[in-house]
């Protein structure tokens, strides 16, 4: 994909997403779960015995919220709709892999989301000024990189599931089921440090902690094994990328357009 | 009097028809039910695990013991099942009716339009949650030493009904706004996300959030008050306020629907 196509694709998708800014604002707002969990954790007797300090908890859950906002992927839904409406066939004829189109849509949606997330974060700091701190620049860069990689992980995982739509119309059920281990193992509802060791080990054997917990701890300035985290992320990416491309290639061969 | 009774019967008969046909058509998709079962089990196990993190030896959450907090989780599961079975499939259709102009046909039917829109279909997807939620409530309440005397049982059922009415009214009012703004259907996602706060007793939150969840978004009346009634320790002040909130929100949903219909000009005009 050359630069010109990328520019055109991104700018058209951005214009398109701007039309949907009301919805996107509501979606951003529907990610409030980390703040609810912060409410419970900040008051819990268990927090102090687990060594979780209140300010650090505030930073962690805010970072978790931000990371979630910029790593969300919805390929399955977009793909399912395109396949159902028959838009997929013209996309397949174009000399551009359709996944690039979805990727551009996601990036454009993130750009639309940015002001809303910034407003929510600013409100959070106004309500809890003691949690405000600027991360060191190199830490911030690492957090940014980790968030991008987390998005790539999410995107590839979703795209692989979307490819399964070529075989079964129920593939979106798989996405629904995957959301459950994600919810409880990613660190969105509790810092993984609060989990019993066995549970933590189980979580780290899955890609989910790298989707929220790892980038969020980097952003919040919490304790985290930087090199090991990035190594694991790269490992998962190297596993998912070929899998996704393979599923796509074999899936397209099975594809018969709607109505055919 | 006889007229009113036969009117009630007519609505009950209609309801049985609605849900009977919905169930019959949904039973065609048994795989979906399996997915729902797995999702329910996973969600409940995860929520219970998460809740257990707050209970180290001798620890409480907002003054609630582990079994008592499980009652709250059980009620949340039950309500979530009701939302999946009734609220989402029915109220989600309002926006479609508005977009496609089929709301006109609903308004022409010789039956109350709010009733028709709220009860037209039933999805068995929420049934596992309803059953398991009820079972969890009963089991945890028994372990927590709740008294199952007729009066406290009646009070518990009354509080549960009130919480269902409040939940329904919240959903219905949000869904009704789509008559003016089609995009507001997405705000039910925000509602759903915020209601997740009902997984924990309201006393577990800091003071500011606690008043927010009582006065602005009545999460406290959805799960905490019924749980206290089931545990036989609801104060009469809370019971009365819960009934009042339920009655007022139902009335408000009714008036709001009338107001919305007044400004509804069908799609073709």
List the helices and strands and how they pair.
The complex is a heterodimer of chains A (260) and B (269).
Chain A: H1 3-19, H2 21-29, H3 33-43, H4 45-49, H5 54-69, H6 75-85, H7 88-93, H8 98-127, H9 137-163, H10 171-185, H11 197-204, H12 213-220, H13 226-254
Helix pairs in contact in A: 1-8, 2-8, 3-5, 5-12, 6-9, 9-10, 9-12, 9-13
Chain B: H1 2-26, H2 30-52, H3 66-100, H4 103-108, H5 113-119, H6 127-143, H7 150-176, H8 187-195, H9 207-216, H10 219-230, H11 236-262
Strand content of chain A: under 5%
**C-alpha-based Rg of chain A, rounded:** 19 Å
Overall average pLDDT of chain B: 89
Total DSSP helices of chain B? 11
Decide which structural class fits the backbone of chain B: mainly alpha
Keywords:
heterodimer; A: 260 residues; mainly alpha; 13 helices; 74% helix; B: 269 residues; globular
Summarize the structure.
Chain A is mainly alpha-helical and 260 residues long. Chain A has helices spanning 3-19, 21-29, 33-43, 45-49, 54-69, 75-85, 88-93, 98-127, 137-163, 171-185, 197-204, 213-220, 226-254.
Word description of this protein:
- The complex is a heterodimer of chains A (260) and B (269).
- Chain A is an all-alpha fold.
- Chain A has one domain.
- Chain A contains 13 helices and no strands.
- Chain A has helices at 3-19, 21-29, 33-43, 45-49, 54-69, 75-85, 88-93, 98-127, 137-163, 171-185, 197-204, 213-220, 226-254.
- In chain A, helix 5 (54-69) packs across helix 12.
- Chain A is globular, with a radius of gyration of 19 Å.
- The model of chain A has no long low-confidence stretch (mean pLDDT 90).
- Chain B is mostly helical and 269 residues long.
- Chain B has one domain (2-262).
- In chain B, 74% of the residues lie in helices and 0% in strands.
- Chain A binds chain B through residues 22-23, 26-27, 29-33, 36, 39-40, 42-46, 49-50, 170, 173, 176-177, 180-181, 183-184, 189-190, 194-195, 199, and chain B through 31-32, 35, 38-39, 42-43, 46, 49-50, 53-56, 59-62, 183, 186-187, 189-190, 192-194, 196-197, 200, 204-206, 209.
